[in-house]
Amino acid sequence: MCGINGILHLQSQKKVDERILTKMRDSLEHRGPDDKGLFVENNIGFGHRRLSILDVSTAGHQPFLSDDGRYVLVYNGEIYNFKDFYPELKSNGFDIRTNSDTEVLLKLFQLHGLKMLNRLNGMFAFAIWDKLEKKLTVVRDRMGVKPLYYSFYNETFYFASEQKALFTAGVPLKMAQDGLEEYIFNRFVAGENTLYENVKKVLPGHIMTIHEGGKITTEKWWNLKKEIQNQPEIKNPVDWFRETFDDSIKLRMVSDVPVGVLLSGGLDSSSVLASLHHQNYKDIQTFNIGFKEKEHNEAHLAKMMAEKFDYGFHTMQLENEKLYDKLISSTYFQDEPIMHLSEPHLLAVSQMAKPSVKVLLSGEGADELMGGYVRYKALQYPSILNSIATIGNLDLFTNKPRYEKLFRYAQISKKSELVIFNGSNIYPKDIEENYGINTLPKNEYRKQIYKEAKSLYPDNLRRQALYFDQHTYLCSLLDRNDRCTMGASIECREPFLDPRLVIGLGSLEDKWLFAGKKWKFILKSAMAERLPDEILKFRKVGLSAPWGDYVTKSPAFKEDLESFSKSDLFQNPYFENINIKKLVQNLQKGDATMTPYIMPLFMMHIWMKSYVNKF
C-alpha cells in the first residue's frame, strides 16, 4: 500500500527535474512512511512512498525493475491472490525472489501483458514504463478502490495517488465550473472529471496508455454490465453468498502485519466480524466511533459484538476542538471539500487504530450492492411518489426530516432524474428556491451510467439506482475511505467488493435484495445463524452526525461561522443569488432543515481557507 507519482515529458529531449519529482513523492509521505524510492531516466520519472504490508523487507522496494531491465513499475494496492500465480510463473522460467505481490504483478505483465488483469483479485493503481517501446501504461482496479489522478500540463503528463502531488508539481489549482455545479447538485464529481480544471481521474476498470510522442489511448478492461450478463445462474444464492463472502474475508486477511476491523455496530461490519470469528481468526482488534447523541450512536452494539467474539474493542467520541482539528486535517487529505461529513470521524478512528494495526477491514459496499439505503425505497412505487408530490405541505411531511426529504424528492418527475439525484441531499427545485440556481449540471458521465443501468435493468428503478451508485456514489465513499485511512498511514480493505460478489449479486433476482422489512435480504439470510437479533433488526444509523448543532453550538466553529457569510466563496458569480446570512440565521434559530443547504457551502468555505491557500 503506497503513494505513487510520476512525470512523463512528451518532448523526449526534456529531462525530468528530480527535485520536483521528490517534492511530489514526499507530499504523499502519509501514504507510505516506511520507505521511499525514485526512478529517473531522461524524460520519465517515478516516485514511490511505501506502507509495508506484504514482505516488509527491503525486497519490496519500489520503483520495481524487471529482471531484464525493460520495465519499471510503481504500484499502490494489494493483489490478494498473488501466491496463486507462483507455479505458473515458475513453470515459465521466472524466479520468485521476494514475498511481495509487486514482483508477481510485474512478472505476470511480462508473461501475459494486460490480459492478466481479469485474473487479479485485489485493489490496485499502477504505472509501468516500457523502456523499449517508450510508452507508459497506467491502470486502475475494477471498482476504483485505489485512486489515480493525472494532468496534462505544459506538454507533460503527471500522475499521482492524490491531487496534492499534482499541485506540488506546479499544476495550477483552479476550480472547474462543471465540477462546482456537480458538487452543488450531486454532492461530488463523478466519472473522470474532478472539482479542478486540468485534473482528471483514471476511471475504475480502465487502462490509459501514453506514448512518448504524445499518442494517448484509453481502454475499458472491466465492464460490470457485461460481467453480470455473462454470470451463470447461481443455484443456491444464500450458500453461494456465505461461502464467497467467507473466502473474500480470508483473502483480505493476507498480510504480514496486524489486521483490525472498523466496527460501527451495524449489519455490514458485524457480518465481517462474524465471518472472522467463524473462520477462527483470533486476537482481532476492533475500532469504533461513538456519539453522545443517542440517535446517532451504535457503539453499544459494536461493543456487544466484539465481546461476544472475544475480540478487542476500542471506541472514541469526537467533538468540539478535536472535531474541528480533524475536519481541517481530513480536508487536507481529501484534497476537496468534505462531502460525506463523516471524514473527520473516520480519520480520527483510523489514527486511534494506527498503534495497533496497519490494515483495517471495512463493511463498505454492502449498501450499494444489496439495497441498504432507505432512499432506494422511494423508487419502489414511482406512482406513489407522484401522489406525494401533489399532496401539499401536510405536517406529516414537514415535521419529520426523513418525510420532509421524501416530499422534496417527490417533486422530481423524470425517472432518469429520480435515479441521478437519488443520492443527493437537496434536489433541483430546492436549489432553485434556496440558491437561485436553476440550470442543471451537464452530468454527462452520470447520464451515461444511467443509460447502462436502464439497459441492464429495464423498468426497474431500484436496480438501476444500485448499478448507478456502484459507479458513482460508491466511488466517492471509497475515495473517502482511502484518504481517511491512508491519512493515518493505514490500508483499508473492503471484503464486500470482491468481484465475485459484485457480479453475482448483480445477477440475482430482486427478491434476494429487496425482500423483508429492511432489505439486504441475502446478507441477513446468510448471517442469520451468526448474528444476534439486535444486529439483524436494528434500525440503520450509518456514520451520521448532527452537523447543524456542531456548527452553531460548538465554540470551536464560532469564528468560521462568523466569517462564513463574508467568505470569498460568495464572490463566485455562481453563488451570487444565495442569501447566506438568512440561511445561517434560520439554522441558528434551530431550523434543522437548513443543514443540507448550509453544509456543502460551509465545507467549501473551510476547504478554501485551509486547503486552497496552501497551494
Short recap of the structure:
The strands form 3 sheets. The protein has a 6-stranded antiparallel beta sheet with strand order 2-3-1-9-8-10. Strands 4-5-6-7-11-12 form a 6-stranded antiparallel beta sheet, with helices on one face. The protein has 615 residues and is an alpha+beta fold.
Task: Please name the defining characteristics of this protein.
615 residues; alpha+beta; six-stranded antiparallel sheet; 28 helices; 41% helix; 15% strand; globular
Derived structural class: alpha+beta
Strand fraction band? 15-25%
Radius of gyration over alpha carbons? Answer: 24 Å
Largest sheet data: 6 strands, antiparallel
Coarse morphology: globular
EC number: 6.3.5.4
Protein name: asparagine synthase (glutamine-hydrolyzing)
Organism: Flavobacterium xylosi
Domain Glutamine amidotransferase type-2: 2-213
